[in-house]
Q: What sequence folds into this?
């Protein structure tokens, strides 16, 4: 009953989404105020019915209704309650439903908070959102229906893939989807602007908060996925340049570029055409990511060809939105007025350079991800493009970008003083070189990580310099610096944190890449190995019974200078129901560094292969991501970016900010 | 500066960055990609020593020998098999008669694996392995690598 009701709710959501698209786009075309008043209501309706459908699926999971095929394939009555919830989106059909739900939520939010948008722009935006929602819900209903019943209800389900039974992975998809789908808002705004043939700085002011929120979720989603891979897969790696990972990285890079170019557009009315194009491309890359992950094309080109319904449907969606929007762009671009001009040394030029580098990085990731697929489908030759490729391409470009980053916020709009900025950053550069030389002298160093470390430290020092400049630290009395710090616009503070986070992540990446220590040995109970300045003694085997699994753990005693400082228990976790096992790493954190242990299969003579890593400053990689997201959150809380701020007030505020 | 000069500066900057990216990409594509070969292809065409390769197939039944952290096993595509040597930890889904992909170099008749690829799903079969097995007629369609 619930399954049928949920199915019906989803069908209703589809009908409403179609109505939303038709009423708003037709209303905007005809400039009919009554028609254009409809979309905020339908957007709310789509949300209500999609949410009802999603709640229905959740109910089926929680009550373990195995007459529903999707629940049978992905759940088990003995599964912990938390994973019954998260199992809802731990499979293809359910995750697409989550995608649609997030999209409906974004549309409803636009409908609710965009009261001050010009009615035609709002109608067009909601029209495009409705179109996206309608097509994706149609996709679910026709190829990925999670509510299909089995003819004979089995007594027990097959259980969720054990690797997915982890809180990190449970939260990773919703965050990432919030980011992916959030890109649709900037896309809809861009299409709406093209439909109207009109675009101005106010447009950028509406788009920026949505892009910031999107970027925040993408950043957190990627950081969380990376940390999950690190502790769950037992390999100690945090990024594998897997196509699935790249699929989430590309929209992130494009959204980062969009954030920066929208800033130029908002403040200086320049880079308009480029910003619109970026908004289109960012969502296109999200759709590409969805296609790569959901069509099965990565698992096998042949699987994709032999069961084409889903893949071809998503490919059609991809072509429709990417092709359609780019065609519209080509038709209308000449109507958009070219904006303000600026000198080659200016904040605008710096942001443009940032965009150039980010685009180049995004393009190399794109090539590295899709080239093997292209080559195989054309020549049949099979190659793999992995970390060495990306280290050689993305690495240098990203390093140059980060090395230039500290100068950006210090440059003035329109025309800037390059020598003055260099002078301000001299101290930061000297400090980072001094620290790098110190590290080199004490630890020795491979070249590439050494360069990355220096640039990372420079980025952190540069961000601090910029903050100190803004509050006139040491140049003015402390009382004045303090009051300046309090009066600093939240968006400046956001920039500071975001750039600081980039530097911190880079330091973590460099330290992990250059100074990690790894040791693998076969140990029996009572034997020890030494890594960094720790002695690890394999004490004994231990077994633990979990709710739906059994752990076989190696209890490892950890000593430094002969003193016992703790015990770690890396384990093999065996899920009896599916006959599968996963690795559970034993991790101990020291400040920002970690000792990471994992074990192989137990051998009959009670010995085990023990793999130990010492990873210095590794936590900075993800901490940097959190700091970046914090920067986005602070920036979002800026009064000037609040969605409800009337245009005139926003203008006045804008004028009051010195063009620093 | 006139508008035209500014535009030229911009185009020059864009050109330099994109040329840099393109140069890096092409040189990396030449140097860093690894080709995938099946055990039969390896037997037919032994690669130059030191060249990084990927091989894939099924782990031959009864071929796994563990000596501490050193593992030896054979990868087969039904027609030919290749001895593999690997020092390290095997992924959780490494079993006899299961699909496997190893990355490393082929030296003196033994494949020295640097990485054994792990995937997150027991029904997953690396696509290269599926294709290699299909070529040899070992692959049965209903074994399904669908996810």
A:
């Amino acid at each position: 009953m619930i399954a049928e009701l949920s199915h019906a709710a989803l069908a209703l959501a589809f009908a409403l989404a179609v109505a939303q698209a038709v009423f708003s786009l037709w209303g905007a075309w005809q400039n009919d105020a009554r028609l254009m008043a409809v979309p905020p209501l339908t957007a709310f309706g789509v949300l209500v019915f999609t949410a009802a459908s999603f709640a229905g699926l959740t109910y089926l999971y929680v009550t373990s209704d195995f007459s529903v095929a999707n629940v049978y394939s992905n759940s088990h009555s003995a599964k912990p309650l938390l994973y019954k919830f998260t199992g809802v989106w731990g499979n293809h059909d359910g995750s697409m439903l989550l995608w649609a739900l997030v999209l409906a939520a974004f549309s409803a939010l636009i409908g609710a908070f965009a009261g001050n948008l010009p009615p035609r722009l709002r109608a067009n935006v909601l029209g495009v959102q409705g179109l996206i929602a309608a097509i994706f819900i149609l996709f679910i209903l026709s190829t990925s229906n999670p509510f299909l019943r089995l003819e004979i209800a089995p007594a027990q389900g097959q259980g969720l893939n054990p690797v997915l039974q982890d809180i990190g992975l449970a939260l990773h998809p919703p965050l990432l989807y919030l980011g992916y789908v959030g890109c649709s808002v900037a896309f809809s705004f861009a299409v709406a602007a093209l439909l109207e043939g009109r675009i101005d700085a106010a447009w950028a002011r509406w788009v920026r908060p949505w892009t910031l929120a999107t970027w925040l979720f993408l950043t957190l989603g990627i950081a969380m996925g990376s940390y999950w891979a690190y502790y769950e897969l037992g390999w100690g790696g945090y990024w594998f340049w897997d196509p699935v990972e790249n699929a989430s990285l590309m929209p992130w890079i494009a959204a980062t570029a969009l954030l920066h170019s929208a800033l130029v557009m908002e403040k200086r009315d320049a880079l308009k055409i480029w910003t619109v194009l970026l908004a289109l491309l960012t969502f296109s890359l999200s759709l590409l990511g969805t296609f790569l992950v959901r069509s099965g094309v990565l698992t096998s080109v042949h699987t994709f060809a032999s069961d084409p319904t889903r893949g071809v449907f998503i490919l059609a969606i991809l072509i429709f939105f990417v092709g359609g929007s780019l065609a519209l762009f080509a038709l209308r671009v000449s109507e958009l007025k070219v904006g303000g001009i600026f000198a080659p040394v200016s904040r605008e030029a710096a942001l443009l350079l940032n965009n150039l580098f980010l685009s180049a990085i995004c393009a190399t990731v794109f090539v590295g991800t899709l080239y093997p697929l292209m080559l195989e489908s054309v020549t049949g030759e099979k190659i793999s493009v992995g970390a060495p490729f990306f280290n050689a391409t993305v690495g240098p470009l990203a390093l140059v970008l980060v090395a230039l980053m500290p100068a950006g916020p210090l440059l003035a709009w329109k025309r800037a003083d390059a020598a003055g900025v260099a002078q301000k950053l001299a101290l930061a550069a000297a400090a980072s070189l001094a620290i790098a030389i110190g590290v080199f002298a004490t630890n020795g160093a491979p070249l590439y990580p050494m360069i990355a470390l220096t640039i990372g430290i420079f980025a952190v020092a540069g961000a601090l310099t910029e903050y100190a400049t803004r509050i006139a630290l040491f140049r003015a009395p402390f009382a004045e610096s303090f009051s300046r710090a309090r009066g600093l616009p939240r968006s400046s503070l956001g920039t500071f944190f975001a750039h600081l986070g980039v530097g911190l992540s880079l330091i973590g990446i460099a330290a992990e890449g250059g100074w990690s220590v790894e040791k693998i040995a076969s140990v029996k109970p009572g034997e020890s190995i030494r890594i960094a300045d720790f002695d690890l003694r394999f004490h004994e085997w231990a077994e633990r019974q979990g709710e739906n699994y059994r752990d076989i753990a190696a209890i490892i005693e950890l000593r430094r200078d002969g003193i016992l400082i703790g015990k770690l228990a890396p384990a093999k976790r065996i899920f009896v129901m599916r006959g599968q096992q996963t690795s559970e790493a034993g991790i101990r954190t020291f400040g920002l560094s970690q000792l990471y242990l994992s074990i192989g299969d137990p051998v009959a003579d009670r010995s085990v292969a023990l793999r130990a890593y010492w990873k210095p400053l590794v936590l900075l990689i993800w901490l940097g991501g959190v700091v970046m997201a914090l920067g986005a959150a602070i920036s979002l809380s800026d009064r000037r970016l609040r969605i409800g701020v009337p245009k005139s007030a926003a203008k006045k505020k804008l004028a009051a900010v010195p063009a620093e | 500066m006139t508008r035209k000069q500014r535009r030229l500066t911009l185009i020059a900057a864009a050109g330099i960055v994109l040329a840099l990216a393109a140069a890096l990409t092409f040189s990396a594509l030449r140097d860093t990609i690894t080709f995938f070969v099946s055990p039969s292809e390896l037997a037919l065409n032994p690669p130059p020593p030191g060249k990084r390769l990927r091989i894939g197939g099924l782990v031959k039944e009864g071929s796994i020998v563990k000596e501490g952290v050193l593992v030896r096993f054979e990868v087969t595509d039904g027609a030919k098999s290749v001895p593999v040597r690997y020092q390290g930890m095997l992924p959780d889904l490494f079993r006899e008669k299961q699909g496997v992909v190893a990355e490393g170099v082929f030296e003196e008749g033994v494949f020295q694996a640097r990485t054994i690829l792990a995937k997150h799903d027991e029904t997953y079969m690396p696509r290269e392995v599926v294709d290699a097995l299909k070529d040899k007629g070992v692959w049965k369609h209903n074994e399904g690598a669908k996810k």
About this structure: Residues 497 and 630 of chain A are 7 Å apart (CA to CA). The mean pLDDT of chain A is 86. Chain A touches chain B through 57 residues (CB under 8 Å).
